[in-house]
Amino acid sequence: MSCSHHSSERDADTCVACGWALENNSWVNYNSNIKLFDTAYDKGAWSIGSKFILKDRMVFPPSYEGINLRFLKGKVNIPIPDIMQEWIDGSRYFSITSRIEGTTLEQAWPTLSWVDKTRIAKQVADNLEEMRGLTSPRIEAVGGMPMYEASLFPKGDAGQQPLSSDQELRMELEEPLLHLDENMRRTLFANMPRCRPYTFTHGDLTICNIMVKDGNFSGFIDFERSGFFPVWYEYVCCRFAFGQVDMEWKTLLSEHITKYPKAMNFQMALSKLRRYPYRSEEALNCLNHLVEEKNPESP
In angstroms, rounded to a whole number, what is the distance separating the alpha carbons of residues 225 and 65? Predict the structure, then answer.
């Protein structure tokens, strides 16, 4: 490849993603088929032609996408990407996966009818159920690795080590709340739902991680946060949405996956006590609304 013009300082019209200056187009006729199409925090995703996806992110917290995709292959018959290559270069982690056919549900959402959306939700739920058939004796990432899930674990930012029982999970959840009133803690954890079986959980079923084609579900993407969680955690994750459209999607999806309303209320109360320890009445109100009738999480 011939040398091109280089500047000691980045020009104002230089692309921040690839470093290519617009002025270079005056003497070349190259139209790149490698394009940045998504960014979040310090992560970027690039399409390589029409067949592959390149992800570029910091090494920490680690991405378990490659490990998870290899684990799932051959165990479930659901549409997921193939992991082609992954490597670390300095402080950056790179991975290349195959591309699932279609577009994200987020892109398709405005063009879909309610019948289409409901059908897709049912298809996602059916495929999810197959994946949920995979269990582990511990709460852990695949291969016994730590879990980086701060929404559940107090030590999630630094990495939660595997947990072998519901009691161990309770101890981890309760530790940051020891300064609270003992009766309040007793009320909270007396309502902690049973967590077994520890179930393989995608953990991030946002509208941009569901692929669709011709009005039907075509695949799951983004398994960076997946692992073996409490059986109710996939349902609880539907509580967290990124904007109105994602909330519409997760509300619809929640109607078709196994419901754990007691776990939802427990997680909401736990989150409120963590964030607003001096407004404990709000947390207790969540507990007061625990569903009493028999449901799949009941002993």
Answer: 7
The verdict on whether omega for the bond into residue 79 sits within 30 degrees of 0, i.e. cis, is no
* Separation of alpha carbons 36 and 45, rounded Å: 6
Which residues neighbour 63 within 8 Å (Cβ) at sequence distance 6 or greater?
Answer: 55, 57, 93, 95, 224
Beta bridge partner(s), residue 211: 104, 219
Domain with 59, as residue range(s), is: 22-98
Query: Does residue 226 lie in a domain region?
Result: yes
- How far is the CA of 211 from the CAs of 36, 132, 254, in angstroms? 18, 19, 18
CA atoms within 13 A on the CB side of 197: 9
pLDDT, tens digit (0-9, with 9 covering 90-100), for 40-99: 878 898 899 989 999 999 999 899 999 999 999 989 999 999 999 999 999 999 999 999
* 31: in domain: yes
Burial annotation 191-214 (CB, 10 A radius, 16+ → b, else e):
bbbebeebbbbbbbbbbbbbbbee
pTM: 0.85
Residues present in the chain in total: 299
- Per-residue pLDDT reduced to its tens digit, 88-113: 999 999 999 999 999 999 999 999 99
Long-range contacts of residues 108-117, Cβ cutoff 8 Å, at least 24 apart: 108/212, 109/207, 109/245, 109/249, 112/215, 116/215, 117/249, 117/252
Co-location of 75 and 193 in the same domain:
no
